[in-house]
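Appendix C. Worked example: Polymorphic outer membrane protein
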Amino acid sequence: MKKEVILAISIGFALGLIITFGIWTANQSLKNLPQPSPKASVAPSPTPNNQLANNQLTINIPDDEALVSTDTVTLSGTTTPKATLLVVSENGEQTTVADASGAFSLDVDLITGFNTITVYSYSTDGQEASKSLTITYSTAKI
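Step 2, the predicted output written as structure tokens:
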């Protein structure tokens, strides 16, 4: 038992020395780094790119939170001309491309109950816009 205690103390002491040496070496390296002069020029901060707001997306039909009695709804709206659109719904994904005026239209299949439809618009220069809406499909008579 005495041998194990002495061995544990020796190993702990050796590890402590190794860790202490590592910390000392790191501190010495940090002290040798060149310090910036107080009059050093500061790089100008980047200016915001106002072009990011150029990709507009509007969904005209259907209205958000609409209640429909058919299992398919026609989704139409406007976006940036020639933008690629990705429509993600409960039944999967669809893609389409807006025409030269930015108009788009496609049929989206619905499941019974709540359907969250998210439309992503990617302009030809890489800008993104997105909109989400909830459509409820029900065959119940009101």
